Write a sequence for this structure.
């Protein structure tokens, strides 16, 4: 190391600290993207994310009798386990502003107890913010014991502000095996 | 350690034996180590690509099982990107950046040593997964969950290997930035630096800004698999699509990390052999800076088919197409530099010209992929494979080869054999087009990427592609022979200090081979070296 340093060593250490700070900052930024992503999805309804649970009295019924929207139900079992999972009907016609109840069922055909979690998704994406649910099995983990057959109601309403170009809304649910996650959380 | 130096300082030659390489803090030694490491990794990654091409030579499953095939595509990418191209560029930066700015070494020589020596450990971890239960990672280099979470024993090894590669890249980048900003010779202002130095300054900032984000993403994968977090696990409220956003926030700047130093090398070589100053120096710098900035706001063009609002598709489509403007400026300037130059076609120039021509083809197919509605057809097809191999092989790799031919006489003091060099270029140029051009057609016809078997109508294109791949691999042995025998073993003709008639810059003012220590005292840069790098408006005669 000889004397060719054009700037003082102190300047170099300062420079180094700034760059190191940038590295740590970007690592933190990677993690900050997680809540940021959730926020963007909540605001825009991107990825078919609906708002959380609505209290019964916060959902004022004001049916728009002139408008009919078709609501379809789609169910998927994720882990290729021997479960039954479905809705009592594939589709219903609804008036925005009116509450409806649709029964879903889940069946465990195996000899093992499970804890399940359903994840909801709405298509098209711009309808997601206008789906109001007062009750849904997807809001919490559901136990599904060996051989159990379970009825699970979903109570929902389409907000009358639903964009006029939307004529069909699909509510999709995927049922996951969350036994491991539930145990890890305890 | 056993030797006794009566030295006041290490201004003698290097230490003898293996400890020289383990303990070295000399930028030239470490540059050499980086380049040898990259050379070995290119070879390993190349063998993996040959296994892929062998399996795809004919439809049906012939040689390997599908799991191993998927491991090969995954490992080929990880090794070529993190083990081949990035260390090769870092090696060139180690050698050339201090010599180009007139510094005696990089700013943090000990960190430089450490940054290199964690790489062999990283790749030992990664390569050891080939022998593990459940096989090597097979989820693609993008490591999308939930698929990647099904990786067997290899999973934590892959994650930690990526952490180590990231640390190595970041230390290298910090070293380059501090050297460039603090240790330039007097009189070398930022806009008088050689363009290779500029390209590395911008690349280093990209590395610092994005490698930590990748480290975060893979750490989230790790905790999702082993510690019950649910960043990307839908059952726990996570979202696998979020991984793709985080990954490509790193991934898109990463592709410019893989190409910006190439721009710098080509911008150095073309003026030398056109015997003119580079056309539009300032616009070259601004173009690279614009590309670097834009690279942060286009990531979702990798995810057009994942599901996005129309406004998002439009934004990412137009932002991506905007990158063609600064890139077009660069290609225009390279061509304008050659315009009315007295050109000669030595091997480095041939590879640089091959770069300009073939990289532009890859750029055009990139523009096609940027068109969101058309991308739904191209997505995950062989068209994408053809696109990124055009920008990475005749793009990044050709530029590395060009740089090696160009600077190796300076490093070793001996010339490579020009005839063999030209033979190597022409075989490579033909083989690379044979390999990757047909993949455009296979992709447009519907052949998906990352599959070991395919429908019989794609056979002809795949046969041509496989023949080209083997042809290309074999041609590289000419290069290895030429470099090792003529330059490293010093059988070639001795090189002069200037090496090339049209070469300018501080690195050519030291003797060939470059002494172990250069610029111990800051050099005085002559006016002619500066004006030769920068086309000062006053110095540029009007060319009607």
């Amino acid at each position: 190391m000889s004397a060719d340093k054009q700037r003082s060593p102190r300047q170099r250490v300062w420079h180094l600290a700034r760059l190191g700070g940038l590295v740590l900052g970007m690592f933190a930024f990677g993690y900050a993207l997680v809540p940021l992503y959730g926020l963007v999805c909540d605001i825009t309804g991107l990825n078919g994310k609906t708002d959380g649970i609505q209290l019964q009295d916060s959902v004022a019924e004001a049916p728009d009798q002139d408008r009919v929207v078709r609501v379809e139900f789609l169910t998927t079992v994720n882990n290729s386990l021997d479960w039954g999972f479905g809705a009592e009907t594939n589709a219903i016609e609804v008036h925005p502003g009116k509450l409806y109840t649709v029964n879903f069922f889940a069946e465990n055909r195996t000899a093992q107890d499970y804890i399940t979690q359903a994840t909801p998704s709405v298509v098209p994406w711009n309808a997601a913010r206008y789906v109001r649910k007062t009750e849904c099995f997807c809001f919490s983990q559901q136990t599904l014991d060996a051989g159990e057959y379970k009825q699970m109601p979903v109570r929902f309403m389409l907000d009358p502000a639903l964009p006029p170009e939307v004529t069909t809304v699909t509510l999709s649910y995927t049922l996951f095996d969350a036994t491991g996650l539930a145990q890890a959380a305890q | 350690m056993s030797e006794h130096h009566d030295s006041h300082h290490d201004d003698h030659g290097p230490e003898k034996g293996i400890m020289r390489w383990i303990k070295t803090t000399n930028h030239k030694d470490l540059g050499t180590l980086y380049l040898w490491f990259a050379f070995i990794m290119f070879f390993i990654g190349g063998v993996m690509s040959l296994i892929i091409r062998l399996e795809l030579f004919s439809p049906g499953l012939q040689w390997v099982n599908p799991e191993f095939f998927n491991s090969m595509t995954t490992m080929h990418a990880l090794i070529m990107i993190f083990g081949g191209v990035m260390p090769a560029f870092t090696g060139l930066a180690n050698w050339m950046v201090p010599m180009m700015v007139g510094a005696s070494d990089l700013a943090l020589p000990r960190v430089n040593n450490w940054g290199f020596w964690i790489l062999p450990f990283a790749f030992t971890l990664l390569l050891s997964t080939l022998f593990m239960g459940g096989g090597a990672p097979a989820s693609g280099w993008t490591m999308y969950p939930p698929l990647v979470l099904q990786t067997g024993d290899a999973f934590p090894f892959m994650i930690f290997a990526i952490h180590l590669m990231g640390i190595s890249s970041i230390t290298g980048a910090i070293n380059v930035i501090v050297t460039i900003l603090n240790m330039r010779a007097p009189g070398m202002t930022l806009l008088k630096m050689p363009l290779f130095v500029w390209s590395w300054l911008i690349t280093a900032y990209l590395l610092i800004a994005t490698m930590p984000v990748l480290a975060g993403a893979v750490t989230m994968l790790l905790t999702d698999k082993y510690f019950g977090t649910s960043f990307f696990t839908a059952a726990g409220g996570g979202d696998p699509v979020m991984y793709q956003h985080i990954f490509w926030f790193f991934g898109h700047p990463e592709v410019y990390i893989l190409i910006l130093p190439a721009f710098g090398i080509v911008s150095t070589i073309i003026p030398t052999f056109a015997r003119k100053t580079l056309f539009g120096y300032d616009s070259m710098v601004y173009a690279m800076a614009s590309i670097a900035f834009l690279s942060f706001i286009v990531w979702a063009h990798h995810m057009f088919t994942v599901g996005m609002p129309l406004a998002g598709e439009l934004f990412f489509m137009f932002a991506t197409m905007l990158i063609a403007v600064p890139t077009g400026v660069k290609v225009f300037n390279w061509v304008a530099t050659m315009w009315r130059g007295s050109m000669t076609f030595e091997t480095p120039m041939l590879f640089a010209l091959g770069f300009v021509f073939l990289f532009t083809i890859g750029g055009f197919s990139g523009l096609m992929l940027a068109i969101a509605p058309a991308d739904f057809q191209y997505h995950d097809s062989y068209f994408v494979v053809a696109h990124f191999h055009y920008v990475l092989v005749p793009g990044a790799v050709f530029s590395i080869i060009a740089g090696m031919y160009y600077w190796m006489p300076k490093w070793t003091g001996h010339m490579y054999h020009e005839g063999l060099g030209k033979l190597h270029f022409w075989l490579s140029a033909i083989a690379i087009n044979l390999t990757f051009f047909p993949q455009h057609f296979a992709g447009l016809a519907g052949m998906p990427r990352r599959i070991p078997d395919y429908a019989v109508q794609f056979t002809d294109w795949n046969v041509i592609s496989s023949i080209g791949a083997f042809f290309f691999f074999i041609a590289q042995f000419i290069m290895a022979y030429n470099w090792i025998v003529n330059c490293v073993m010093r059988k070639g003709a001795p090189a002069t200090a200037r090496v090339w008639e049209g070469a300018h810059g501080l690195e050519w003012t030291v003797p060939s081979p470059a002494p172990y220590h250069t610029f111990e005292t800051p050099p005085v840069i002559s006016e002619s070296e500066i004006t030769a790098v920068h086309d000062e408006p006053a110095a540029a005669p009007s060319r009607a």
